[in-house]
Amino acid sequence: MADILKTNSLSKSYKNVQALQDLNITVKKGQVYGLLGPNGSGKTTTLGILLGVIKPDNGKFNWFGNNQRDENRKNIGALLETPNFYPYLNAVDNLKIVAEIKSMDNVSDRIETVLRRVDLWKRKSAKFKTFSLGMKQRLAIASALLADPEVLVLDEPTNGLDPQGIAEIRSLILDVASTGKTIIIASHILDEIEKVCTHVAILKSGKLIKEATLEEILIQDKLLCVNSDNREELLNAIEEIPEFKYIKDLSGEILISVGEERTNAEVNKIFAEKGIYLSSLSLHRKNLESTFLEIVSS
Ligand SMILES: Nc1ncnc2c1ncn2[C@@H]1O[C@H](COP(=O)(O)OP(=O)(O)OP(=O)(O)O)[C@@H](O)[C@H]1O
Questions:
Q1: Number of compact structural domains in the chain
Q2: Which ligand 1 atom is nearest residue 37's CA?
Q3: Which of 79, 90, 203, 211 is the most buried (most CB within 10 A)?
Q4: Number of helical H runs and strand E runs in the chain
């Protein structure tokens, strides 16, 4: 698969805040690549650098394996924040303005194609101000798709949307991905990322903690829910046993990670040797959220 994006030691500081440190990521054609991280981990700074809005202090990046920045920019559709459309103009007229600013050809065909793709064709003549937040976001994605770019870059695309709006954006992302486009999404909504992404990069305090396929991320360790009548002793024991890692409190039970090979009987025995008798021990189905917490808390 061809490289769509490669970064080499990208770094950026703001005064005494190291927003990004030696970031090396590679995105390949056709991937839906999720950039994950807690607040302030450097996601927006990364996208800003990649889109040429923020200048890095150090490091390089390369789109499409070449250095033709102006040409490449036309091949990247981006949605960094909800754009300002004209409230009293309809969807078509708003997109005509975008097409005119970017000197596009075949404007009517392009607009029909993207409005159908984001399922707003039926509302093409409605004024922007009458749109729901979800429809506004879909129009913004239509605008990012107008030039038929190779890559779509989305920063927190489901922010502020209700469950239906979120589901619509999810199916839109999957639909766009099915046309072979590469999509890069920054988000902290792990459930959403898990439903759409093929690859994930996890950032923490400006550093890349992990870059892998979604499957690789989800099968690293085994997660168990454990409990004991003496909770404090249980927590102390978890802290003392190096191979066990505390993940979080799960409505009373404690979620821990153990080595992938460990059987439940072995785990029970290790606790018993520490004088802890478990009142429950069960396998926890892995999802991106628990794995994410496991990775960023280590
Ligand atoms: N213009 C700026 N001036 C000073 N500090 C900044 C600036 N922009 C970002 N930072 C700091 O850089 C770090 C990374 O911020 P960034 O916005 O890239 O993170 P993020 O992962 O996108 O966070 P969020 O999810 O909250 O948007 C944070 O500590 C932030 O406070």
A1: 2
A2: 21
A3: 203
A4: 11, 14
Which residue minimizes the CA distance to atom 2 of ligand 1?
14
* Residue 129 and residue 259 share a domain: no
Ligand 1 close to Cβ of residue 188 (< 6 A): yes
Looking at the fold, whether 159 and 252 belong to one and the same domain comes out as no
CB of 41 sitting under 6 A from ligand 1? yes
**Does ligand 1 lie within 6 Å of residue 48's CB atom?**
no
Check: CB of residue 158 under 8 Å from CB of residue 192: yes
Q: What is the CA(15)–ligand 1 centre distance, in A?
A: 12
Q: What is the pLDDT of residues 2-12, one digit of tens each?
A: 889 999 999 99
Domain that holds residue 235: 219-296
Mutate to test the pocket of ligand 1, among 21, 41, 81 (most ligand atoms within 8 A of CB): 41
Give the closest residue (by CA) to ligand 1 atom 4. Answer: 14
Q: Predicted ipTM? A: 0.95
**Which of 94, 91, 95 is closest to 107 using CA atoms?**
95
Q: What's this model's pTM, rounded to 2 decimal places? A: 0.80
**DSSP annotation string for 112-173:** HHHHHHTT-GGGTTSBGGGS-HHHHHHHHHHHHHTT--SEEEEESTTTT--HHHHHHHHHHH
Q: Whose CA is nearest to atom 28 of ligand 1?
A: 40
Is any ligand 1 atom within 6 A of the Cβ of residue 97? no
Per-residue pLDDT tens digits of the chain, which is 298 residues long: 788 999 999 999 999 899 999 999 999 999 999 999 888 899 999 999 999 999 999 999 999 988 787 788 889 999 887 667 999 999 999 999 999 988 899 999 999 999 999 999 999 999 999 999 899 999 999 999 999 999 999 999 988 888 888 888 999 999 999 999 999 999 887 777 888 999 999 999 999 988 888 777 766 667 888 999 988 899 999 998 888 888 778 777 888 888 878 888 899 999 999 889 999 988 877 667 767 776 776 6
Check which CATH number belongs to the domain holding 90 and give it. 3.40.50.300
